[in-house]
Amino acid sequence: MDKIVIKGGRPLFGEVRISGAKNAALPLIAATLLTPGLHTLHNVPDLRDTRTILLLLGTMGVKWERDGSTVRIDSTDLSEFEASYELVKTMRASVLVLGPLLARLGRARVSLPGGCAIGARPINLHLDGLKRLGVTVELEKGYVDAIVDGPMHGNTIVFDKQSVTATENILMAAVVADGTTVIKNVAREPEIGNLIDMLTIMGARIKGRDTSQLEIEGVNELRPAEISIIPDRIEAGTYALAVCAAGGDATIVDCIPEHLSSLIDKLQTVGVTVEESGNSIRVIRKGPIYAVDVSTATYPGFPTDLQAQMMALMALSNGASVIDETIFENRFMHVAELRRMGADITIKGRTATVKGMRDLSGAQVMATDLRASASLVVAGVAAKGITEISRVYHLDRGYEDLEGKLSGLGAVIRREKEG
Ligand code: EPZ
């Protein structure tokens, strides 16, 4: 296993380019199962998670090749409807093949993803939605066994909570159902808009993009798509927070500022200067870091995927900050590690109170999940001394060339083999 070693305490300057969004690439790759033919996806980040889903599709008979950031996928020879435990256990987003497999083959057998470090992560909303479309769902030996006799039928589905991948799964199932499907209380994350754009290019008829209700008129046939993955707003937000923590003046390029509006609003309250342009944001932090309270929410609220990184910044503030994690029940795994770096954080249920310190100090810390490890990187570039982050395979799931990008901003960072 690898570790990352950071010598912190130096301000960051320069430019960092953002890759395609992991959480858009995964559903859009899954959507290529919907129809035979050659799909072309541009700006696909090369990450552990995108490699995992491409491997998974390969086990089903799908052919794909990567050419730089373009991935060409041909699911003409799709022959397998089972997603094995071996692959699904490494990435719960594999559940995204459920909807497209049922739409294409009428059958899907997917290992239950199980929980992960940040919570139980049930998929009841996915399964209940599929049942509303006429799918028979059985759970046996840790697998979801789903089958539909003939095409699915349109229906009205009301989610009792907003779920990103449940919205995506039901959307992909409904595009070729008989009749019209109305889905209420859908999530509105930009990655869902990217999927809707791809499905529309494929010939799907979808109304309500970016609203809380989608109306899908089922069609008989779809065609392959060519589309670009949108920039990764969470990667962009992570680097913006790293610049704020370390101090400096840097520009985050190839991002969509509108997708970061809740973070930008918080940073301006913290005392950071943020200059937005068409496809970039410039972040300047020279003075003190003011404390601000944060409550995570579904889009366009403050993203839960930036909560841990924001906490690292608040650990350096000149006051006290209250951070509420409203989406997941156990997304404070980074707290114990930040405390090892000198952070003063107390937790009560889903609320963390962070009392800012002038400095954090480098330490040996351990990554526990993707965004918790990103939080340790944000703390590490600011901390005085050396921070060693072990188990960085968590980071590799969602950050392309993290060391290269941070080095490009002047950070002293390297990857080493763990002893
Ligand atoms: C997506 O996960 C993202 N992953 C997550 O990013 C992100 O944190 C999350 O949305 C919230 O924004 C991908 O898009 C691949 P949810 P998802 O379903 O869809 C509950 C990262 O770091 N729920 O929106 O799995 C669930 O327990 C990852 O990049 C049910 O109860 O999240 C949670 O409390 C982490 N039943 C809430 O809904 C269900 O059937 C929101 O979860 C589904 C979800």
Looking at the overall shape, the CATH architecture of the largest domain is: Alpha-beta prism
Name every ligand kind in the structure: ligand EPZ
Give the strand order, joined by hyphens, for the main sheet.
22-23-1-24
How much is the average pLDDT?
96
Q: Give the full name of the CATH homologous superfamily of the largest domain.
A: Enolpyruvate transferase domain
Distance between the termini: 9 Å
Shape call: elongated
> What is the CATH top level name of the largest domain?
Alpha Beta
CATH domain fold name of the largest domain: UDP-n-acetylglucosamine1-carboxyvinyl-transferase, Chain
Tell me what you see in this structure.
It is a single chain. The chain has 419 residues and is of the alpha/beta class. The protein folds into 2 domains: 2-18 and 231-417, Enolpyruvate transferase domain (UDP-n-acetylglucosamine1-carboxyvinyl-transferase, Chain, Alpha-beta prism); 22-228, UDP-n-acetylglucosamine1-carboxyvinyl-transferase, Chain (Alpha-beta prism). It is 31% helix and 27% strand. Helix 5 packs parallel to helix 6, helix 6 packs parallel to helix 7 (190-201) and helix 11 runs parallel beside helix 12 (370-382). The longest helix has 14 residues, at 233-246. The N and C termini lie close together (9 Å). Bound molecules: ligand EPZ. Residues 22-23, 26, 93, 119, 121-126, 161, 163-166, 187, 304-305, 327-328, 370-371, 398 line the site of ligand EPZ.
